[in-house]
Write a structure and sequence with these properties.
Layout (H helix, E strand, L loop, with lengths): L2 E6 L4 E6 L47 E4 L27 E7 L13 H19 L6 E8 L11 E7 L4 H17 L3 H12 L3 E4 L3 E4 L10 E5 L11 H21 L6 E6 L14 E5 L2 E3 L2 E2 L4 H6 L3 E2 L3 H9 L15
Parallel strand pairs: 2-14
Antiparallel strand pairs: 1-2, 3-4, 4-6, 5-6, 5-10, 7-8, 8-9, 9-11, 10-11, 12-13
The chain binds zinc ion (ZN) (2 copies).
One zinc ion binds next to strand 11.
Length: 346
């Protein structure tokens, strides 16, 4: 049983861990997994090779990855420049930036965890190149690479893909992490994330996988039941400075986490994945440690974690699960995808 508050040093906020409540009676909404087998190619899918998108543009017959500027961007070069100025305390500005979509594979029926390690490594290289290209634009302050996976996080198209928002501002979580990291570095001389990794390794109970130069773990201060961080061991502000060896090792660690996720309930595991890389606004980000965060919305196979009073009303998370228990569950799962014959641990 865990019943305590844990400090989230990257977000600088408390998380209430009340795992003793996990089995309290529940009559909330449950999520039914649509077990339909997907086709390799869907003529109606706007991401499949050779298909025409809503903009009229036609996708190439791509064979690996493919990216394009989002046809319905939330930030973009075409955002109206002549907006009506706000009044007194109200401020506004044009929503400039670039929004892109990245397809992981030409296969409509694949998920990221089903890709081969070298395909995941190629994707890491693509993400790095996008970070460099978009981040070098003067109007771009930050590049957020993220994947929303699953209908429970609002994604109706199962074709494996992620999005990139290159914005004229730094996303709030990154801003908070960057400030916390800078303060910790100036106070201790050590990167904050480095201290987190040291503490996680000393404890050991929440580590999912440790490679030669990368690691995956459920953080001590996890806010979601199956939250996992994947990171290189060395401090790099972004993907841009990883060596080829580090990229290879990171791709294997990432693959293992994704496979364990899908193996957990033998279903495509829904999550929000976000790459946390340093801003590209020209500031100094010493001590910022690139990592990938997974925030899965499900607590049990058909049970959503609801964001309610504490989270939406107050801004702090209430977790009903023990990070140590959830890490053990994930660690014990096979590293071979169930669709490729990886058994469950029954
Ligand atoms: Zn498709
Ligand atoms: Zn982060």
């Amino acid at each position: 049983m865990v019943w305590e508050e844990r400090w989230h040093p990257l977000r600088e906020e408390w998380v209430i861990v009340a795992a003793h409540r996990q089995n309290r009676p529940w009559s909330g909404e449950t999520i039914e997994h649509n077990g339909e087998k997907l086709p390799r190619y869907d003529p109606e899918c706007y991401l499949c090779p050779g298909n025409t998108r809503i903009s009229g543009a036609r996708n190439p017959l791509y064979s690996t990855t493919f990216f394009f500027d989002n046809d319905h961007p939330c930030v973009g070069q075409d955002a109206p420049p002549g907006i009506v100025a706000g009044n007194q305390v109200f401020r506004n500005r044009p929503a400039t930036g670039i929004a892109r979509v990245v397809c992981y594979s030409p296969r409509h029926d694949m998920s990221l965890g089903e890709l081969d390690r070298h395909e995941i490594e190629n994707l890491l290289v693509l993400w790095r190149d996008q970070y460099l290209e978009l981040g070098n634009r003067p109007e771009v302050a930050h590049v957020l690479v993220f994947e929303n996976k699953g209908e429970v996080v609002g994604v109706s198209n199962p074709h494996p893909h992620c999005q990139i928002y290159a914005t004229n501002f730094v996303f709030k979580t990154i801003e908070i992490e960057a400030a916390a990291s800078a303060r910790h570095l100036s106070e201790t001389g050590r990167p904050l994330f480095h201290d987190i990794l040291t503490a996680e390794q000393q404890d050991g109970r929440r580590i999912i996988h440790k490679g030669d130069s990368s690691i995956a773990f459920v953080p001590y201060f996890a806010r979601y039941a199956y939250e996992v961080y994947v990171a290189p061991m060395m401090t790099h502000a972004s993907l841009a400075s990883l060596s080829n060896g580090e990229l290879t090792d990171l791709s294997e660690t990432l693959r293992r986490v994704l496979v364990k996720y899908d193996n957990l309930w033998r279903m495509p595991f829904p999550y929000v994945m976000a790459l946390h890389q340093s801003p590209t606004d020209g500031g100094r980000y010493d001590g910022f440690h690139f990592h990938i965060e997974f925030h899965p919305p499900l607590r049990r196979p058909r049970l959503l974690k609801y964001l309610a009073g504490p989270e939406i009303g107050g801004g702090n998370f209430l977790s009903d699960t023990s990070p140590e228990e959830k890490a053990t569950e994930l660690r014990c799962l096979p590293d071979t995808h169930y669709k490729r014959g990886g058994g469950n641990n029954e």
